[in-house]
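Researcher: Go.
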Amino acid sequence: MFRPMRRGPQALTDDEIKELLTTATRGVLSVQGDDGYPYGFPINHYYDAEAGRIYFHGANFGHRVDAIKRDPKVSFCVFGEDEPADDGWSYFVKSVIVFGRAELIEDEAETERVSRLLCSKFPCPHEYADGEVAKDLHRTLCFALNIESVTGKRVHES
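Model: Structure:
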């Protein structure tokens, strides 16, 4: 169902994929938008390797919510930092692309749990995170990407 990576020697190991999904602060989530146009947007995330899910949050209405309700198939892409090559002018870059189905989280307790996981990725004070969660929980929608396929590669860009 999912295409194999064309350039196998560039493939990241499972550990490298997990590390990039864990450490990247944001990526681009793409959904099937209005009138068949793809809709990709930057978003922060929390990767749960044990559950095989990537969590997101945002407003409980809008373009992405409508798109996910219409078709839950999504892709998510993250990039690592550029790594300079030895030649002094070119770079290596790591990227991971995930395919799966988005699942809207309707349970308030689970929405709060996921919101706190997302907050834990950033160095904000706990008091700030507590205040934001309390203030916005009623209008927050969390959703999970249930991973069906994931590939990663390291490319020499020259």
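Model: The mean pLDDT is 93.
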